[in-house]
Amino acid sequence: MKISGAEIIVKSLIKENVEIMFGYPGGVVIPIFHQIFNAPFKFILSSHEQGAIHAADGYARASGKTGVVIATSGPGATNLVTGIATAHMDSIPLVIFTGQVSREMIGNDAFQEVDVTGITRPITKHNYLVQDIKDLARIIKEAFHIASTGRPGPVVIDVPVDISNSQYKFEYPEEIHIRGYKPVYQGHPVQIRRACRLIESAKKPVVYAGGGVVISGAHEELRKFVKKTGIPITTTLLGLGIYPETDPLSLEMLGMHGTYYANQAVFESDLLIAVGARFDDRVTGKISAFIPDAKVIHIDIDPASVSKNVLVDVPIVGDCKNILKEINKIIKAPHIDQWVKKINDLKKSHPLTYENTKGRIKPQYVVEEIYRLTKGDAIICTEVGQNQMWAAQFYKYTKPRTFISSGGLGTMGYGFPAAIGAQLAKPKKKVIDIAGDGSIQMNLQELIVAVQHRLPIIIAILNNGFLGMVRQWQQLFYDKRYSHTCINFAPDFAGVAEAYGAIGITIKEHDEVVPALEKALSVKDRPILLDFHVAKEENVYPMVPAGKSIKDTIMRELA
Amino acid sequence: MSQHVISVKVENKFGVLARVAGLFSARGYNIDSLTVSTTEQENVSVMTIVARGDNRVIEQVKKQLNKLIDVIKVTDHSELETIERELALIKVTAPSSKRPEIYQLVEIFNAEIADISHKTMTIGVKGVPGKIENFIELLRPYGIKELLRTGRISLQKL
Ligand SMILES: Cc1ncc(C[n+]2csc(CCOP(=O)(O)OP(=O)(O)O)c2C)c(N)n1
Predict the structure, then answer these.
(1) What tens-digit pLDDT sequence spans chain B (158 residues)?
(2) CATH number of B83-156
(3) Distance between Cα B44 and ligand 1 center (Å)
(4) CA distance, residue A129 to nearest chain B CA (Å)
């Protein structure tokens, strides 16, 4: 029996056990939407395609499953671009369907035609233009496979409308064979033994773990490794939660706004054990002065990440979980009491802190109270800027997939739609978007989606009247010339929220912070926007000034 | 900076050339020559890419090439024993007084006179890239009006 291409798409999604699809309709995808209408999975209509793709991304990060998105050709597809790049940078599995003009029109500058595969080529793991309906089912199967395996990433399938409308039999392939794509999952035993020897003889080792541990689901193995070896551990922004930050061996986050002790420990280390992390420049600071004395073990599934920024002594290519499991079988603890003591002293002498005043609300205080009142059990999403860094620093993450943030691309406007996706993935969890007054404006239109689906997401705006992170740089490095970063003409956010049918509360006093949060946490049936008017010129510290070594981490403004 | 000859075995599909070339262009990297050829295997093409760059960058490009789904295999022929060939077409100014000399060169280099007119000769020459370079240098004094090279193809010996 022959069915339409559109129906093949929907049937394939059912085969892939898709629970939720995100998207927005348009001319050339009407045939597909025609089939989605009766599909057994949930469809979430966004207000903007960027909202749809960030929501799918948040869904993927919270659940570990592949996010699925659909948009129309032309502007629908170009509106996805920021979301595709965001997912690509952070290795998030997405399958994205875009409509395309019919095959005979391609290349004619037809209405709403853009070269989707051309535009998305450098920001996808792979992309397809379907040219023959015979290939459609196989392409979908391949796309899900490629998106979710190896180092995950977004895969785009561009579907010309005449393909959606033509007829073919439906056979979803059981297996696929892609000869150019064979991710390596098992670590090489010789390399594993070499790594163990290095670890056992190290005097000042540090574990530096990242988002790869989340993706691989290796947090239990990682915890076991740290327990067996007693080696202190720091994580990247995307690694927050893979190791409990409340544990004495946790150094919390490293890098540009990492803790002083994480940065010093890494700088002084004689062995850096990198697990599922990629030596991003926000982590390393000035690369030549990053780890002058350390040997490096690098465990990663992506061979292209190894020795890209830092030369590696023992690379182990494969899946973190498998490799850590093998290491845990044979590893013995190194003798590092002195080292651990030294780090503990550093923790005491240079704690992560801020000056809490009863005057203007301090943004860090809001984050601390969110942590206290949710008992660390919420899913925290963030926007980008100071809000993101304070959310990373002052909330203590103890479980993977509880911190959702655009790390690699640093996409303002990511956090709120991502929170929608996360809440849909985890209906029982409290989901909170920690936002800035600049970022929240970038996708606030998605509020209607949260209202429509009665999602009790809390938006906590740390409203400082500035594009704070840029202002901080202007203050520190550009003579305090606040060129176009003052945004104290914002709308009444609480009023905007109410207009959408959400709850809005403005908080101006220190003592109102806790009651407002308590109220917000009690709401179950709609989003709540909390507009915290916080200290205007608070800065994020510690900080590694741009171009400096991590050893030059500063704790406050230099005179 | 050294010259690398990278042989990339790819699925013979549309769009592959753009993916491969994109990895170079995104890094501001110039490709000296690029050939795409069908092979003994159906559905498999080989791209031979000659590019210059510091070793670390080339190393990274090779890894990124390997990551492309449509790339089956990447080999760096600068590190291996290979057989290389290239073809060039050269249009050179050739007044009758100079022609005997040019004929001689053509003979020595086993080249071929592909076309001839009142003022010019067009010569085809094939061989290893070094030979072609020599030939071009020897013709240069006569005045090269146009020059095209196919870019090299390179086959591993073993
Ligand atoms: C889409 C996008 N545009 C611009 C930037 C550059 N940028 C980084 S942080 C920042 C300021 C963010 O301001 P706000 O959301 O108010 O947060 P704050 O830093 O004040 O907490 C800007 C403009 C970005 N990261 N993303």
Answers:
(1) 788 999 999 999 989 999 999 998 888 788 999 999 999 999 999 999 999 888 888 888 999 999 999 999 999 998 899 999 999 999 999 999 999 999 999 999 999 999 999 999 999 999 999 999 999 999 999 999 999 999 999 999 98
(2) 3.30.70.1150
(3) 46
(4) 9
A24 CA from centroid of ligand 1 (Å): 26
What's the CA-to-centroid distance between A411 and ligand 1, angstroms? Answer: 8
Going by C-alpha positions, the residue among A315, A314, A247, A240 that lies closest to residue A283 is A240
Is CATH 3.30.470.30 the right assignment for the domain spanning A189-349? no
Alpha helices (H) along A25-115: 30-36, 49-63, 75-78, 81-89
pLDDT at position A130, please? 98
Residues of B in contact with A129 (CB under 8 A): 14-15
- Residue A56's pLDDT is 99
Domain A2-169 CATH superfamily = Thiamin diphosphate (ThDP)-binding fold, Pyr/PP domains (3.40.50.970)
User: Which atom of ligand 1 lies nearest, measured to the CA of A472?
Assistant: 19
Interface test with B, best of A155, A179, A279, A311 (most B CBs within 10 A): A179
**Measured between beta carbons, which residues in chain B are less than 8 angstroms from residue A117?**
15
